[in-house]
Specification:
With about 325 residues, this protein is an alpha/beta fold. About 35% of the residues lie in helices and about 10% in strands. The protein has 12 helices and 8 strands. The strands form 2 sheets. It has a 6-stranded mixed β-sheet, sandwiched between helices. It has a two-stranded antiparallel sheet with strand order 5-8. Helix 7 (about 260-265) crosses helix 11.
Length: about 325
């Protein structure tokens, strides 16, 4: 931990699940870091041609009031110019353009629980990074097609970046961790405009005109995580620029799906979630979202937790998911 720094937080909120997750995120931030002095900005996509037949705005007045009046968040609009409903993960790319340029930023997915003093984390905003809590989900090399090295190098070559300096010599070539790869559940930098410009450019060019080496690779839903390492590398960042046991550690937890959280999280994080969601003023709104109502307030999450030994969880996440689904308790 370091001295308090001034920075803004960005999350994306829209109608439905993300609006309730945004409440949980904001409530956990205020509970565990009451000294946070930056702006908590909830980016809200606006209706437009890339959102056909739907309005992504947060329309529930109780949700908006809770975020703005009780939790001190600012809901700011942005227009979808490149992604929209066809690739909602692109919201995090396009939302960066609304951030003010006078402070560094930290982006979080809404399905994140803050469990410590985020404002005390010694961020090096000149050396961006992102979450290393990930698996080797992309690329998936074909038997007779390009391998990891050819695929990743083609992307670095496309944007005139130095590929050799991005790899991790602690892992061998053709093993996924040899290459710079992150989860996009959090990332940060000093200059939101510079980050947005690169992220938008790299993601749209890869989508619209991928190198030939990507011919057998799917970019849905991985496009943001394909472009993100290139952004971070360009801006002088890399792996492990954060102090140990901060984000994805003692200070934050990316829970992704609430049934997985109850199955896998440690007791301290379970207690943190239950404490944050206990007050009646937040319970009144969160229980309107069925997974929160059933898993938290009707205590179905405790049933999920009892299905597993948290000290001997299945090695494959899919096995955890399948068992929860068989019990009829998978919901998101």
């Amino acid at each position: 931990m370091g001295k308090a720094q001034e920075f803004n937080i960005l999350i994306v909120g829209q109608a439905g699940r993300l609006s309730y997750e945004a409440i949980l995120f904001a409530a956990s931030l205020r509970h565990y870091d009451p000294e946070f002095a930056g702006r908590l900005i909830v980016a809200e996509p606006q209706p437009g041609p890339l959102w056909p037949d739907q309005d992504p705005r947060i329309k529930d007045p109780e949700v908006r009031s809770l975020l703005e009046d009780r939790l001190g968040a600012e809901i700011l609009p942005f227009d979808s110019l490149h992604f929209g409903a066809g690739y909602p993960y692109g919201n995090k790319i396009e939302a960066l353009k609304i951030l003010p340029g006078d402070r560094p930023f930290v982006f979080f997915d809404t399905d994140t629980l803050i469990t410590g003093a985020l404002s005390q984390v010694a961020f090096d905003f000149d050396r961006p990074t992102a979450s290393l809590k990930r698996e080797g989900t992309w690329p998936v090399p074909e038997l007779y097609g390009p391998g990891y090295t050819d695929i990743w190098k083609s992307l670095y070559d496309r944007f005139a970046l130095d590929f050799a300096s991005s790899v991790d010599p602690l892992h061998p070539p053709e093993y996924w961790q040899h290459y710079l790869y992150f989860s996009a559940s959090f990332f940060f930098h000093r200059d939101p405009a510079a980050f947005h410009a690169l992220f938008s450019r790299f993601a749209t060019e890869i989508r619209n005109d991928p190198p030939p080496e990507l011919v057998c690779q799917t970019l849905t839903p991985w496009l943001d995580q394909v472009a993100l390492p290139l952004v971070i590398h360009t801006l002088g960042g890399g792996r492990d620029t954060l102090p140990a046991n901060t984000l994805d550690g003692a200070v934050s937890y990316h829970w992704r799906a609430l049934p997985l959280f109850f199955a896998c999280a440690d007791d301290a994080r379970i207690e943190a979630l239950l404490s944050v969601t206990a007050p009646n003023w937040i319970k009144k709104t969160l229980k309107e979202y069925d997974p929160f109502r059933r898993l938290i307030y009707q205590q179905k999450g405790a049933h999920v937790r009892a299905m597993f030994d948290q000290n001997a969880l299945p090695l494959k996440e899919q096995a955890i998911r399948n068992r929860i689904k068989r019990e009829g308790l998978w919901m998101r």
